Amino acid sequence: MNITVWNEYRHEKENETVRNVYPDGIHQVIANFLEEAGHHVKTATLDEPEHGLTEAVLSETDVLIWWGHKAHDEVREEIAERVKQRVLDGMGLIVLHSGHFSKVFKKLMGTTCDLKWREAGDRERLWVVDPTHPITEGLSSYLELEQEEMYGEHFDIPAPDELVFISWFEGGEVFRSGATFKRGNGKIFYFRPGHETYPTYHKPEIQQVIQNAVKWAANRNTPKHEYGNAKPLEEISKKR
Description:
Largest sheet: 9 strands, mixed
Number of strands: 9
Number of helices: 8
Order of helices and strands: EHHHEHEHEHEEEEEHH
Oligomer: single chain
């Protein structure tokens, strides 16, 4: 499977705490465990030409993984539209953590995607609320993170097609931390954990979720749809 992992790659360059956790970037940690699982993985970052998301790269991508936080506004509008169109055409999209505020995710959701947050190193428990879902394969009934940034409701997204995880934080908040959506021919999974100062993506359980999500989101057998004037039935029959 062809996967592209996109990351702003700003925190790791500018913040020593983040650099100590992800010295080669969040994108590289994710790429490494996906490569070990047998996938063909490319990385792309904000400061590359066209943010690393050229037409050629996206046309060869089965699933795009997106991590962004502090530079959402720097993503060029035409690139965000390009990614959105590829999702509508059938590319899978996995949006991680504060990627909920990315231009791409907001365009596909059609809402503000706003939420409550608190950066205080809260303990988080992610409950599996759909144990039959492919994204939860191999997991126990919950995942526990010793420290994470709190995200709380109300999360301004459309009602998910499927709710996979709900988080509880020690401050009492809850959050829809794993949600799926279908847009056009594409499948989208939003997964909340992954604040840059915590080693969340080094944890095997979180890596398992992302690996499962990649398999779920891939949609390589999508037929190409033709739009416009429909041909009469008799004309179609003559070609058979």
